[in-house]
Amino acid sequence: MPLSRSLSMTSLTGVLPPWEEDELPVEDLLLFEVSWEVTNKVGGIYTVIQTKAKITVDEWGDNYYMMGPYFEHNFKTQVESCEPPNPAIRKAMDALIHNGCQVHFGRWLIEGSPYVILFDIGSAAWNLDRWKGDLWDTCNIGLPYHDREANDSLILGSLIAWFFKELTDHLGDKPNVISHFHEWQAGPGLILSRSRKIPMATVFTTHATLLGRYLCAGNTDFYNNLDKFNIDKEAGERQIYHRYCLERAAVHCAHVFTTVSQITAVEANHMLHRKPDVVTPNGLNVKKFSAMHEFQNLHSTNKSQIQEFIRGHFYGHLDFNLDKTLIFFIAGRYEFSNKGADIFLESLSRLNYLLRVHRNDVTVVVFFIMPAKTNNFNVESLKGQAVRKQLWDTAHAVKEKFGRKLYDALLKGQIPDLNNILDRDDFTIMKRAIYATQRHSLPPVTTHNMLDDSTDPILSNIRRVGLFNSRNDRVKVVFHPEFLSSTSPLLPMDYEDFVRGCNLGVFPSYYEPWGYTPGECTVMGIPSVTTNLSGFGCFMEEHVSDPAAYGIYIVDRRFRSAEESCNQLTQFMFSFCQQSRRQRIIQRNRTERLSDLLDWRYLGRFYIHARHLALSRAFPDNKWAHLFPQTEGFRYPRPYSVPPSPSASIHSTPHHSDVEDEDDEPYDEDEEAERDRMNIKSPFVLNAVPEGAL
């Protein structure tokens, strides 16, 4: 069945109507956002707060501050030191500094340049025993001495609570303070602030529950047993009971509790025993990825660079047509089951069988970009790229010589004798180059020497399913156990460029509270596979009627067995392989149109909603209690894409589709426009607040 056609940008006229909500008087408020990952990249929360900074600064200006731990190297390379614009903040910092605790202030050198307040944990470590006692007296949570991360979190939290106490004492009744805490590492600051009755509105966001991540990593049937787990017992057996207690206490202390997706909200309700008040989806700074009408050309350019790597890696076995080769990839932390690498490999084995049985001339090259323990590039991979480069240099040398002789002959008005235009030496050079490409071993499945080769989960499963890159395999595997970099001697590409050059991103995650990887594919116009157990997949299911038509394939891993999910993923990939080149171009256009749905300009409004709600609960008698937002939400904009459809007269890619265009069914743009307007669900409703919750 032919893929639904894309429509041109001129057909998409939907706009985002103004959000009918009174704005907060930000000049009378101070907003603080607390996270362990402010200027300190550890995981995905860094991406959240970094990309969201611009829209928050635009709204709050100099009344917005981020807070986190101080690390000297990060401060020197990412922060420009300056003086606080607010005298009360300067006085609060001085109060801590005069008591022997170091506090640093500056502007974080990212888009938006937000102010940051960073606390030196080492300078205050001498207070740890006393602060452990305070935590025990406050909420009966004890921290073991050997858990350095938990101890550091307590030091940071104690410093932040101390800072807020000094700040609110200096501010008095105005301006009021809103503090937003991310994840359990920031939890102690919230717990201590609330126990000391510091007058401020608090929001706590969990991006993934602690225990949920541990349970899923243990290959438990997590989602079917959510209501059956003995939470305290499970946390104790994993020696994280104290961390779990900090997380749960922070959740229940906060005026407003939020999570990043509907699936995480279900998890949090069971794990932490509080239903989230607001779901705050993670967005992206779409402008960063936006290539306007060039995104199709960028796909072609970057795919050519990946194909050069493939030529070198598969030298001697390059018996497949690169023009009919599709590039799939999976990327992220090396969590074999949580990220769905297990079901992906099994599905690839089945896809390989289907392509061989149907004698399909399409070849699929699959990249696994997951960092693992290695000691260096393996020799065979480096040799492949060297052979490719040598062959390229040889071809260019012969081409130059051929070109000069042809040029001279044409100047003389002669048609050259092609049998004599190349001499014996030229043929000798070319034969040597051909002999250099001979290979008696199979192309390696990994680019590096793995430290735990025999027990590595990906390599073990590659051996199990037998994907060894043999000539008969239509699915080839390349495991790159290192994050991509443009300085790599093997595959010199940054991650963003690599993604743009691929045809499909596959992320069949079992545990993925949000999932930035398929979101990044979407805003760059690359179709992707996700699941209904990821926040991104749930978001797309909720807001797009037919995600597959827009290049978002959602595997059902929640209500189907592993076998059924594996078959569904296999069918998705096989159907993708059967698409014509023109259909893939159209689908990329449609995928890119969804990028506005993931922009912080729109998703940031969920955070605005959470702040309104927190203020209404913390200060019910104050003047902004009446500003509580309406639950009638906003309409999503029409998906917008600058490149025209390939059906238009102007081609959107460097090379237009070939004869396959003649076989495609007629394309009715008006009909497609109406279909797309119906496909995006709108309006939707922001989370309603239960009666009596205020």
UniProtKB/TrEMBL annotation:
<keyword id="KW-0808">Transferase</keyword>
<protein>
    <recommendedName>
        <fullName>Glycogen [starch] synthase</fullName>
        <ecNumber>2.4.1.11</ecNumber>
    </recommendedName>
</protein>
<feature type="compositionally biased region" description="Acidic residues">
    <location>
        <begin position="659"/>
        <end position="673"/>
    </location>
</feature>
<feature type="region of interest" description="Disordered">
    <location>
        <begin position="638"/>
        <end position="683"/>
    </location>
</feature>
<dbReference type="GO" id="GO:0005978">
    <property type="term" value="P:glycogen biosynthetic process"/>
</dbReference>
<dbReference type="GO" id="GO:0004373">
    <property type="term" value="F:alpha-1,4-glucan glucosyltransferase (UDP-glucose donor) activity"/>
</dbReference>
<keyword id="KW-0597">Phosphoprotein</keyword>
<dbReference type="Pfam" id="PF05693">
    <property type="entry name" value="Glycogen_syn"/>
</dbReference>
<comment type="pathway">
    <text>Glycan biosynthesis; glycogen biosynthesis.</text>
</comment>
<comment type="similarity">
    <text>Belongs to the glycosyltransferase 3 family.</text>
</comment>
<keyword id="KW-0320">Glycogen biosynthesis</keyword>
<dbReference type="GO" id="GO:0005737">
    <property type="term" value="C:cytoplasm"/>
</dbReference>
<keyword id="KW-0021">Allosteric enzyme</keyword>
<keyword id="KW-0328">Glycosyltransferase</keyword>
<comment type="function">
    <text>Transfers the glycosyl residue from UDP-Glc to the non-reducing end of alpha-1,4-glucan.</text>
</comment>
<comment type="function">
    <text>Glycogen synthase participates in the glycogen biosynthetic process along with glycogenin and glycogen branching enzyme. Extends the primer composed of a few glucose units formed by glycogenin by adding new glucose units to it. In this context, glycogen synthase transfers the glycosyl residue from UDP-Glc to the non-reducing end of alpha-1,4-glucan.</text>
</comment>
<dbReference type="InterPro" id="IPR008631">
    <property type="entry name" value="Glycogen_synth"/>
</dbReference>
